[in-house]
Each structure stands twice: as structure tokens, then as C-alpha cells.
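Let's practice the habit of predicting before peeking. Look at the sequence and jot down your guess about where helices and strands might fall. Then scroll down.
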Amino acid sequence: MADGSTATVDGTRGEGASAPPSEQAPGVTDDGRTEDAPAAEQQPGDGTDAADRAGEPNRAPGGIPCPELHSGDKLAARYRLEECLTRLDGFSSWRAVDEKLRRAVGVHLLPADHPRARNVLSAARSAALLGDPRFVQVLDAVEENELVHVVHEWVPDGITLADLLETGPLAAHEAYQLVVQLSQALSAAHREGLAHLQLSPTSVLRTASGQYRIRGLAVGAALRGVTSDHPQRDDTEAIGALLYAALTQRWPYQEDAFGLPGIGALSGGSPIAPDQVRAGVHRGLSDLAMRALVNHGATASREEQPCANVEDLAKAVAALPRIRPPEQAYAAPPAYPGSSAGRPASGAPGGAGGPVTAVGTPPALPGRTGRMLKWGVSALLIAALGLGSWQVSESLLRNDDSTDNTPVQQAEAPQNGQGGEPLSIVDAVAIDPEGNGSENPETVPRAFDDDPDSFWYTQNYYGDPRFGRLKPGVGLVLDLGKEQAVGGVTVSFEGRTSAELLAAPASTSTMPTSYDSFRKTAEATGSELDFAAGERPLTTRYLLVWLTELPQATDGNYRGRITEIQVSS
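Done guessing? Here is the structure:
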């Protein structure tokens, strides 16, 4: 950050001292609550500390008192304070209402002459510039009337990881999604020079859609004066600790923290591997947690090197076989009245003997009524088959006439992106020219999860397939992990969609987030976009799938869906 704020990845130091995650003081989460704060500092319900209850002003280092504000007070004639959540170290955190946009927000407040006020402002403004929807967004950072206030997004449906772990460890699929999303998000932040330094079970939220979001990027550390000489290593270790806790419901250090019991004495300076703490833990995730946690070259299997930074961790996660959610158990249909479902079989304890009808089988209809019903059902089936065949043939003819799949570069290699070895997509981000990050970022991984039944989808637009004439398009930026020779790309859509495939120049080292940073490679209209490089593969690290016209949904609006993206060498 411009002024050397504490939460950067270049090791700049501020006024505080660094500490490992197990020894850090209680951090401030982005909804204002402290992380594992001692009982004397925070009581549930009132958000005040011992000094407030004693009638003494809470003071920052240097004797600066917390601002004297109350529920109902307004900031910038816009933000109405509702509830004080924390009052600590000379600053306070509130739940508030943005009366202009009529939405809930969170607010951090501290005096302008607070010793950390400059760093807090700088950290908040840098985090706001990142604009990554995987982080809880900073909406405003202002100094006014001798007060500094930082306004951030409120996530009403978010549940902290700490709360999730109260009921037990996460399933392997959920723990996998946790480490995938956290490593990709922090890797993107580190590329922009930002670190978190306060990552904990209370700073990670899981939304109702299954997306994990991180709050307090840079700001939480600046509020508490936390610094580090090796911020990338600290954030990597923090993700490893969260994965460890998700797998075991234990904190991987000696002391209890965040409502989780510690593991006690460490073995050779390192925690015991998760799969040795609890039976049934996924071995690959267990090893991954150890690789993120261990600092001196030793891991659970002693076959892989530790992850020195979050980018290494993201690559290690991408190398794991994808862990899918368990299939839903089949629920048997309810038994018909008069059937033997629920009765004990012949010879079973309590059974009455006699023949037993198959579970859930309805009794046959007798005589003429049964025969008439059979003939009626047969006639309906024949009619339905005939109508379906006619509709299919009409659809095929219509597609032949209307599909305009005309790539800029003609395909010379095998179709469907399968001309060579598959290339992994290690990260992807949804972008749009308005920069509001609202194109359902939580569903982005579904566009390349090898499951054609899942998809990433855009917002709903009305009145025109060209995004309601509100914007020229939206898309997904794909990160292949490194500069590679791309031989083929296939993008599958749901419905007739117009789209372009673009590539960043080979020299691009950081993920571009604007359309102008890419060069068009292919375009198509239909249910699929195919690109084949032929004898001269395309060399790039970043690809952009850009949608320009959307199909119409059954409810009359326009919405784009990408069901699968495949990239090959």
C-alpha cells in the first residue's frame, strides 16, 4: 500500500509486532466482532467492554478515547448507527443502515488522531480497489469531523466457519471447497500486494449458496496494528489452520481458540496430521493441511515440499483429484393404502404370515375398468411419442437454419477441445464492464467442474438479449496457472448464446480484469464455442470467455449459462 500499511505482502512493518496465528491477540472481524475475545473485553449482546460497563472511556494506545456515539447517530448524513458490536483499543464497530441505498452495512469508527488511523484508511482504500467479490467489500473510507469511518458490506446470510464447526467437522467435499476458494481468493489478493494477516474461523463466512467469503482483508490487521515480515507465509499457514480445523474440529496449536480445543503438545514442533486425529479424514486434504502448516520442510507424508505461499497452495489444491459431494440417497415412494409396506414379512417377528406384495405396489384395478384404463394410457403414450418426434425434427431443422457458428479462426484440429492433453483451470473470475462484481461469483467454479449438469450463470436481464442494453457483455477470466500452449478450447452453453474467446498476450503475468487486455481469438453463436489452434498453438496463461448475447429463459428474461469449459494443449 502507498504509505506502508501493515497488511501488505512486501513485509512492511508498522507500529505492531508480528505473531504466529496461535499467539495473535483477538482480531476484529469485518462485522465488528472480536475473534475469541476474553470475557472481560466482550460480553454477548451489548458489544461493550469492561471499561464501558465501569463507566470509564475505552482508550487506544496513547490514551485516545473511543468516539462517544450512540444508536441513531448518523455519519456523512447517510449511515445511521444501529448497534455497537465492539468497542476496543480506541475504536468501535457497528451495524448500521445506509439510508441512501436502504441496505445494512458495517462501520468501523476511530478518532482521526488515533495512532493507527492513517494505516486503517490506507488499508481500506487498497482493499476497496481490489473489488474481488470473494472478499467482503469495503464500500467507503472517509475522514470527517475528526473521525475516520470505514464502511463495509454486510452479509446477512453469512455463517462464520466457527459457527459451522460447532456442530462437527466439515464433510470432505465442504472442506475441499473451503480450501479451494480461500487459496484462490488470497492468491489473487497477494498478486495485488494485499495480505490479510488476521484470517481465522470468524473471518470466513459461508453464504446460503455455498460460497465462502473473507472479511477484514487488510483492514482487520490495520485496526489491530498487526504486522508481519513474511505475510504470504502467514496467510498460507492460516489457511492450513482453517483446513485442519474443518477436518478435525480442533485448532492445530496447543491453546484453545475460536471455540475449538487445541491439540496440546506438538510432535516435533508440528501438529499431528488430521487423519491421525480423527478417523475417516480424507488423506489428500490431510496432507495438504500439513503442507500449509509446516515451516521447515517436513510434512505428514514427507514426500511433498511445504507450500511457501498461497499461490503454491492453490496449485497443490488444483493437483488434487476433485472431491465431489455425496450423491443424494434415494427416498422410496410412500406406500399405497392397502399395500403391505410397513408390515413385517412372513416369518418375521410380529408377522402374520401369508403372501407379501412388493413395497409400494398399488393393487390392480379389477375387470373392465382396468382394461379401459390400460387402453387409455397406451393411446396417450402413442400420441405423446408422435408429438415428441415432430418437435425434435422441427427443432433440428430450425437449428440447421439459425445456428451461426462461425469462428474467426477455422478449426484444423479435432473438435471439443480434446485435440491434446487436458489443461487445468486453476482459477477463474467473473468480470463485467460496470465493475460491480455481481455476476454470481459463487457459481464460477461450476463452469469447469467436469459436470455438465452444473453451470455458472449471469444476472437476469430484461427487454433485450444484449444485456438489456445496459452493458456490452460479461465473462469469465480463466487462469491456467502458467504460460502454456493452448491447442483447443470448448465452451458449452445452455441455450443459443453469442460469445467470444479471447487470450491475453503471452507476456501477461497478472490476471487482467478488463476486456481491452485481451485479443479476440474466436467467436460463435449457438450452444457451443469451439476453438482449435491447428499447427500453431496459442501461447497464453489467461483466457476470457465473453458473452455478448444471451438466450431467453422461460420466464421471459435473458440469462446466460456456461455449463462446461474444456481447455487442451
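How did you do? Residues 367-402 form the longest helix (36 residues).
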